[in-house]
Every structure is written in structure tokens, then in C-alpha cells.
Amino acid sequence: MGLSGALLRLRLRTYSAFSRGKRLPGTAGPRSSGVGGGVVCPTLAALIITRVFEAPEAQRRLIGCSRLPANKREWYWCALAVALPIAVTLASAWWQGVSNGNDRLGLRPLPMFALILPFVLGAWLEEVGWSGYATERLVPAYGALPAALIIGAVWSIWHYASLLQVNRPTVWIAWWTLGTVAMRVILVRIYLRGGRIVWAPTLFHASDSICWQAQQPLGVPFDPRIHGIAMTIIAVAMWMLVRHRLSNDRILGESSRPRE
Questions:
Q1: Span 203-224, pLDDT tens digits
Q2: Distance from the CA of 25 to the CA of which of 43, 123, 181, 206 falls in 20 to 30 A?
């Protein structure tokens, strides 16, 4: 896997040094020791690798992937990225039924809005590494879908220690893993189609994190089965709708990044 493998291994090795204090999906109580400071690990690893092992232009391209959307197409993918997790949450709330009696378990609207900036910042710190670096290296080597599955698997494993610390059962973790890998498949698709800038996957990532926090005020606990199934349906639909373009992802990955 080359340098991309180094990125994935480096993130796992830095887990214990950076992991502090982020709540897990659906938990209103105990904090996990899993991901708080660790959100910087993918980007930190990518910056180190591009600085030490690659040409200076590689690091400039990595930083450049954080540019703002520049056209309607890129704004469209950013808007879609925000909307999809909201749709999944609303579907989950509808399926489970909304209870007005459990609103004290979650976040009130004002604190929830206060979380938007931290969640967006945290998602950006992850996606510069996962999308801007790992996706760009793995797509030309393996193709878009295998690259998404590889990153999704490592992304899931990264969280397992946190899930075990709060005594999540095996079945819960299995469904959560399905949803997480499906999310990465969606994120890779959004990144490739959204102008190869990290803001589309960042907004999807942040929107999903905010949505599982928002479920508690609705009286609807996070259900990894519904989340996993819904994300898998979206991932399959998104890739099937553009299946005639899958070969282009590999070509785009092997070619130079479009000049802005």
C-alpha cells in the first residue's frame, strides 16, 4: 500500500497519544477515550509523509484541497453532503417514532448549534488526511471502490477501542461498522465528484456527527442497524447511478489534479 499504508499505520500508532474525550454516536452519558484529539492524526500523518517522503508540490496539493467550492457543481455536492445525513436521521426518527418524553437525555437546540463549528473543524482535520491524502493515493492503485473499502475498514477499526470501552456489544459494533464503511464509500464518491476538495466530505462527516447528537432531543436513540442499512442503501444507489463512470475515477486518480 506504500505511503498510503504508512498513513493508515501512523494513525493507528498515534491513537493512544491523541485519543481523548469525544462522545460516541448515541451516547448521552460516558465519554469515550477514543477520538477527541485524535482527529488531527490523519492530517498530521499526511503532512509529515508529504513533507518527508514526497516532493514539496505534494504538500502544496494537500493543502490546496481545502480551497472553498468554486462553481455550482462543487456547491451542489456540498449541499448534498449536508442533506444526506439529515435525511437518514429523519428516516430513523420516523421509523422508530418520536417521543417527546426523552428530550432531557440529549442536547437542547442552542448547545447543539454551538457544536456545529467544532464538528466541522474536527471533520475537516480528519478529511484532509482521509480524502485529500489517502483517497488520492489509493484510488490510482486500486480503483475508487476498493480504496473506499480499505479506508472505511481502517476508519472503523480506529474506533473499536472506544466502542469496547463503553461496552458496546458485538452485534452493535457490527452494524455500526457496516454504516461506517458505507459512509466512507459515500465520502469517496462525494470527494471524487465534488471537485476533489475536502469540503464536501467534511460537511457530510460533520452533518452525520451533528445528526446523531440531534436524535436524542427527538427522543430517538441512535440505532446502528437503521444507520448502517440506510447508509448502505445510499452508498449502493450512489455508485450504481454513476457505475458507467467508475473507470474514470481510476483515470482521474492517475492523472494530475486539475488546475484551478
A1: 999 999 988 887 776 777 889 9
A2: 43
Phi, psi (rounded to 5 degrees) for 242: -120, 25
Phi/psi of residue 77, nearest 5 degrees: -65, -35
Grade residue 109 by pLDDT with cuts at 50, 70 and 90. low
Q: What pTM does this model have?
A: 0.77
Distance CA 101, CA 103 (A): 6
CA dihedral 151, 242, 183, 18 (to 10 degrees): 40
Distance CA 14, CA 37 (A): 10
Q: Are 225 and 178 in contact (CB under 8 A)?
A: no
Rounded CA gap, 41 and 230, in Å?
28
What would the DSSP string read from start to end of 160-224?
Answer: HHHHHHTT--HHHHHHHHHHHHHHHHHHHHHHHHTTS-THHHHHHHHHHHHHHHHTTTTT----H
74: cell is 462543487
CA 220 to chain centroid? 22
Cell of 97: 417514532
What is the CA 99 to chain-centroid distance, rounded? 29
d(CA 28, CA 76): 33
Rounded distance between C-alpha atoms, residue 138 and residue 201, angstroms: 16
Angle, helices 224-241/72-96, rounded to nearest 10 degrees: 140
